[in-house]
From TrEMBL:
It comes from freshwater metagenome. Pfam families: F420_oxidored (PF03807), P5CR_dimer (PF14748). SUPFAM superfamilies: 6-phosphogluconate dehydrogenase C-terminal domain-like (SSF48179), NAD(P)-binding Rossmann-fold domains (SSF51735). PROSITE patterns: P5CR. Keywords: NADP, Oxidoreductase. This is Unannotated protein. One of its GO terms (molecular function) is pyrroline-5-carboxylate reductase activity.
């Protein structure tokens, strides 16, 4: 797919903006990216920041070679009905909505446009995201390359069968929130031990950042890194024993299953 592709971005939230930035970083000229968003102030903000254009929905999808649907799952049906009959028949449709299956999108559009389903996560906005794509019928190699190309500007990308997208949602899609909740708990725990809020926050944040850096750069597994810092009968071992007594693996697995189940309910 040529870098002269015309891209319609439907939705101007945080993820929509992150994807606009990644499109431009991947080589798509800003004047070929057009956004559709009901909030005029938000449109003006993105036009000023990125040099893109804005258009109403029908005109935007009519001219586009690729349509990025960056809307909430509960809004997807309404958006698809609104653009039904207006979409360029040769355009690739790329959905970023949790739970919404390729079949759902095709049925609501009433066309045979190729559809690619993507589950990104919030770290996309800082260029360290994790995305998984699934390909619908008729997706051409150049369509796949286009999507992988601009998503690579936001982090890492893998391809999975669509039936695993709900598991992806429960792992990387919702995963950052699990991490943030654990950080909240660590900060609170440090304060209960007598540390000030500022010191508890600094200690926790830098510890987490450093640990993530080790995981990324050391070439060692999380298991090996954990074992390396856990002396028998030491302080770390005491904390980890407490985690195991509270069945941390069961707690996490149950939470991820709840996220997976909710993703399936959104279909």
């Amino acid at each position: 797919m040529s870098q002269q592709i015309r891209v319609a971005v439907i939705g101007a939230g945080v993820m929509g903006e992150a994807l606009i930035a990644s499109l431009i970083s991947s080589g798509i000229p800003a004047d070929l990216v057009t956004i559709s968003e009901k909030r005029s102030e938000r449109c003006n903000e993105l036009i000023t920041t990125y040099g893109i254009k804005a258009s109403d929905l029908a005109a935007n999808v009519k001219d586009a070679d690729a349509v990025l649907l960056v809307v909430k799952p509960q809004d997807m049906a309404g958006v698809l009905e609104e653009i039904r009959g207006s979409v360029n028949q040769k355009a690739v449709i790329i959905s970023f909505a949790a739970g919404k299956r390729i079949e759902f999108i095709s049925q609501h559009l009433g066309t045979k446009n190729p559809v690619i389903r993507v589950m990104p996560n919030t770290a996309t906005i800082v260029g360290s995201g994790m995305a998984a794509i699934s390909l619908g019928e008729g997706v051409q190699p150049q369509d796949k390359d286009f999507v992988i190309g601009f998503l690579a500007a936001t982090g890492k990308v893998i391809e999975v069968p669509e039936e695993l997208q709900d598991a992806v949602t429960a792992t990387s899609g919702s995963g950052p929130a699990y991490f943030f909740r654990f950080v909240e708990a660590m900060v609170a725990g440090a304060q209960e031990l007598g540390l000030s809020a500022d010191d508890a926050t600094t200690l926790t944040y830098q510890t987490i950042i450093g640990a993530a850096k080790l995981l990324e750069t050391s070439g060692k597994s999380a298991t090996t890194l954990r074992e390396n810092v856990t002396s028998p009968n030491g302080t770390t071992a005491a904390a980890l024993t407490s985690f195991e007594n509270d069945e941390i693996s069961t707690i996490v697995a149950r939470a991820m299953k709840a996220a997976r189940d909710r993703s399936q309910e959104l279909a």
